[in-house]
Write a structure and sequence with these properties.
The protein has 7 helices and 11 strands. The two termini are about 35 Å apart. Mean pLDDT is about 75; it is low at about 1-45, about 45-50, about 55-120 and about 130-140. It is of the alpha/beta class. The chain has helices at about 125-135, 155-165, 185-190, 205-220, 235-240, 265-270, 305-330; strands at about 10, 145-150, 170-180, 195-200, 225-230, 235, 245-250, 275-280, 290-300, 330-335, 340. Bound molecules: 5-O-phosphono-beta-D-ribofuranosylamine (GRF).
């Protein structure tokens, strides 16, 4: 994909697929380092609140068949074999999330309960003040909160919603942000009772102006992680900087191959035999952030772009909730460009 006006300081994050909502205006990019990712190696900095040590999910060795009953029926809720990249090993049930989500660690943030003034010696009084300080319905272990940004159909968003509902996500979808009031993603959010922030870009004098408003919404909702899922707008430093290391995107190719628009079309055109889906951090470039996880999809000789795209999206819907669950469980670490899962 061609580079755009270098003066444009915004990046493309979600406008990388064939979408009826995409417009040329929405797909520039910009070079530059990832804010919050220094050049030097060793940057263990995913600003997930640092809670109790996470309990890694039990994971069978890759290649070990999925657990089954003596009749050969898959054992419900049994941990599924995965490869280190999160790809189900041969024998894994593809309908089951391959990771068993560990319990949510406690989240302690400045401003959250925990330092009740005047109650430092009496545990009972401390607990009481803690409870009083919390908004109704919110326990002392505050759930990990994500905001999903979507402009289109929102099939990834739906997969996240389903995963949250089943408890596998380990996170609360606290906000949907969309630039398209008519988007199916907005409809899905309303049906699921997820708060929605919809804006019309033309009502603002600049991208920075609406992003400042989005930032306010994110802060008010105490969002821990931004999950871009087909968001067809450029994103500027107004959002990238405060959420450096806490903003992820899904792209329909095996990055670094085929960044930008129409990734499936590019893959078919190029004649590759394998493509797939990539979840990566959002940095200052076009689909260039550190890669978190990938799933491969075979490309057949007679594939069309749309056929390949649909098969990739099937994998995306499995991969994205899984990756978000890693964040929610505090299992992701960044060292230089390498993303470690522990
Ligand atoms: C996905 O294919 C994703 O890779 C890209 O945008 C598409 C969004 O699809 N970033 P949907 O709206 O989630 O169905």
């Amino acid at each position: 994909m061609s580079r755009v006006d270098p003066e444009d300081q915004e990046i493309l994050t979600g406008a990388d697929v064939t979408s009826p909502n995409a417009s040329e205006e929405e797909v520039p990019q910009r070079p530059g380092p990832m804010p919050g990712l220094p050049d030097e190696p060793a940057v263990p900095t995913i600003p997930r609140p640092e809670p109790a040590p996470p309990t890694p999910a039990p994971q069978p060795e890759p290649g070990i068949p999925a657990p089954v009953t003596p009749d050969g029926v898959p054992v419900p809720d049994a941990p599924q074999p995965v490869t280190p990249g999160g790809i189900p090993a041969p024998g894994a049930d593809p309908s089951v999330d391959p990771l068993t989500l560990p319990g949510l660690p406690a989240v302690a943030e400045p401003g959250d309960a925990g330092e009740a003034p005047g109650a430092d010696s009496d545990p009972a009084a401390q607990l009481l003040e803690l409870e009083q300080a919390l908004p109704q319905g919110e326990g002392p272990e505050r759930p990990y909160r994500i905001a999903v940004f979507a402009s289109g159909s929102g099939s990834n968003f739906q997969a996240l919603l389903d995963s949250a509902q089943s408890g596998r996500l380990g996170a609360q979808i606290a906000l949907l942000v969309s630039d398209k009031p008519q988007a199916k993603a907005v409809e899905r959010a309303r049906a699921a009772g997820v708060p929605v922030f919809v804006f019309a870009p033309k009502d603002y004098e600049s991208r920075e102006a609406y992003e400042r408003e989005i930032l306010g919404e994110l802060q008010q909702a105490k969002i821990d992680l931004i999950v871009l899922a087909g968001y067809m707008r450029l994103i500027t430093d107004v959002l990238v900087e405060p959420y450096a290391g806490r903003m992820i995107n899904i792209h329909p190719s095996l990055l670094p191959s085929f960044p930008g628009k129409d990734a499936a079309g590019q893959a078919v055109e190029h004649g590759v035999r394998l493509s797939g889906a990539t979840v990566h951090f959002v940095d200052g470039g076009m689909d260039t952030g550190p890669i978190i996880a990938q799933r491969a999809v075979e490309v057949t000789a007679d594939d069309t772009a749309i056929e390949l795209q649909l098969r990739i999206q099937e994998q995306e819907r499995l991969l994205y909730p899984e990756v978000v669950s890693w964040f929610a469980a505090g299992r992701v670490k960044l060292e230089g460009r390498r993303v470690l899962l522990f």
